[in-house]
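# nightly structure sweep
# worker-07 picked up a monomer target from the shared queue
# config: single-sequence mode, recycle default, output format = structure tokens
# input follows
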Amino acid sequence: MRLRNVSILVIFLVVSCKLLVVSCPAEQIFKDMQNKHWAEAAVLKLVNLGVTDGFPDGTFRGKKKVTRYEIAGFLDKLAGKFNPQPKIKKLLAELKTEFNVEKYKIENPALPTVSGSFRSNLFLSQANTRDLITNYRLKLNFTKKYSSKNRLTINFDTLDGGYYTSTPRNLTNELIDINGCFRFLDFDFTTSFGAGDIIHSNPLVPSKTGMVFRRARPSITAKVKKNHTTLSAGYTVLGNSANGLVSDQDIFITAGYSFKKLPLLGKTDKTLTLHYVRGAGRDVRADIRVISERLDFYFGMGSGKTSGLYLGAEARINNLKLSAHRIGSQYSRSSSKYSFLPLNRFYKYIIPGTCDIGLEYTHPLSKNIRARLEADLVLSGDYRYGKNYPGTSLTSKFDIILDLNQNSKIIFFYKNFDVPSGTNYTDPAIASSVPIRSDLIGFGLEAEL
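# output follows
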């Protein structure tokens, strides 16, 4: 009987304390949060759980935007109070890694950051002979940030130095380029220094012969932005002579306007660029670009009424990407004309006097596995294809992609390359003789560092 009375007394005291806490006026949790705020109970619960204790100055800053990294910190603390499922644990681990990286950047602003990627392939190439080939490509970016507008980046790229190629690459002139940006008055300046386009060539893998590594060129650009309007002007070195002097140079001015949202297109940027190229041959060109969330449109005008026109469009519809480009034979007459040419889906030049049609479709097979089909068709300027039309070709590639995690994946692929004429480009200066038909099959690993 006595034990029962003690139990009743304990229960009475606990209930009384709870009622007392509810009935008493709540103490202000943070200096910037009013009493009886609609979110007060939720915030108090997070404080009691140890998920957040606000900022050092005693404020909560409830109207301040929250970054993905801050959310990662909250979720990590919250996860410690419960026993999450394996899938949630994996997501929390990834968010925690991103959070720690961002935290490191904030706490050590004077130290440079490093990012990059690594790619390696093993495949069987069948052209004139069958060859088992391995390759790799490593890209590293070292960035020193001095302020939000001032930074310096050094980029290292092995290009095809790790490929099945006998072409030696110069470390300082080809494998490294430098980019920088700084603000002076109301102008944002960007500068770069590098080798420009580098063309890969090796007879063992014909489908990759003619592939372009697009590197930075020596250039400087000044830009000013006011509301939705952007104006910029710049200078680019396009080529050097045999003795190292500048041979071709481009002076350009650009005017752009951004629309927050257009019907069917969404956020859209429009730019008009005028180029004056001086060197072995003088050239004047005008380019118009319309870049939106779903559709990109390109229009260029060079020498000649019709042979100097460039028309291009790229569309994105869910998992489907389509592109079409037609470049007139006189679009650019300078000796460095390839500097202005776009690259197709397989990183090859779209040559003046040709038409290029590209396609990419991705289809998810499961949560971590997807299939991807890529194709690119090169036609003559009058839309013809065959052995009598040098440079015409059809490239197709089928991939099965296995996502290991957010930053790495394994790709199983098959690639086919048909060149009816046996010549991959129409321009003799960069053309190579290749087999009429070749293919390769293999797998590779790609990882973001």
